[in-house]
Amino acid sequence: MPKVIKGFTEETRTISFPEAIEEAGRCYLCHDAPCCKASPTGTDIPGFISRMRSRNFRGALRLVRESNFFPGITSRVSPYDEQCEEVCLRRKYGGPIRISELERLLADCDIKAKRPYLPAVPESVGKTVAIVGSGPTGLAAAVELVLSGCKVIIYESSRIPGGVLTKGVPSYLINDRVIDHEVGSVLNLGVDLVTGINVGENINLVSLKNSYDAMLLAIGMGRARRLDVASSNKSEIFTGIEILESLKLKEKRLRVGDKVVVVGGGNVSLDVASSMRKLDVESVTLLYRKDRQHMPVFQNRYDICRDSGVKILFRAVLKQITTGPQEAIKEVVCLKTELKESEDGKVGAVPVEGSEFVLPADTVIFSIGQEVDRMLVDLFSLETGEDGKIKVDPETNRTNDPFIFAAGSCVERTDTIIEAVAKGREAARRIVKQLLG
Ligand code: SF4
Question: What is the pTM of this model?
Answer without folding.
Answer: 0.89
